[in-house]
Amino acid sequence: MMPRTQALKPEQVPADSKPTLDTFTRMLGFTPNMLATFAQSPIAFNAWATFRSSLNKVLDVKTREIISLAVSEVNGCNYCLAVHSYAASMAKLPADEIILARKGHAIDPKKDAAVQFARKIIETRGQVGESDLETVRQAGYTDANIMEIVALVAMYSLTNFFNNVFDPEKDYPAVPLAGSI
């Protein structure tokens, strides 16, 4: 199946997207198709990149990746599952923990509370209960941390929805289809 829109070639990238795309290319060592596609809208692309950059300062990288995997699984985004499975492995998360994260759990109890809460946010569209908040608070998360988890869920959902709509060509190592693990 062909992607629903084409990734831009370097000479096609809008001037207002170019600095952001170039930064990602330098950081990653290549230009992912998702980013070369997203760059078609400088406003949306740069807003997402700024949001992402800010959220890269919250929690720790393993917790962020575990949350990204759970959110991407619920949202059925195979592109993001591939990207974040790769990123999680680079963050030294073992393969069995990557699968566990996709199922909405983590071995570490504190990370498990965060990922379960993130999954609950997606599944209930944010209509979490008092007990859900209390559980994540008891695991050691402050209200500010909980707000950051909500923001991470929103950011990962944005890229999930983007990829589900536009279906950019996959350029990360394939993972089993969502739901088949």
From TrEMBL:
Under Pfam families, the record lists:
CMD
Task: Name the source's superkingdom.
Answer: Bacteria
Give the lineage. Bacteria, Pseudomonadati, Bacteroidota, Flavobacteriia, Flavobacteriales
Q: Which UniProt key words apply to this protein?
A: Oxidoreductase, Peroxidase
Q: Does the keyword Oxidoreductase apply?
A: yes
Q: What is this protein called?
A: Uncharacterized peroxidase-related enzyme
> Which residues are in the Carboxymuconolactone decarboxylase-like domain?
45-115
- SUPFAM superfamilies attached to this UniProt entry: AhpD-like (SSF69118)
* InterPro entries given in the database record: AhpD-like, AhpD_core, CMD-like, Uncharacterised_peroxidase-rel
Q: Nucleotide-binding as a keyword?
A: no
- Which GO molecular function entries does the Swiss-Prot or TrEMBL record give? peroxiredoxin activity
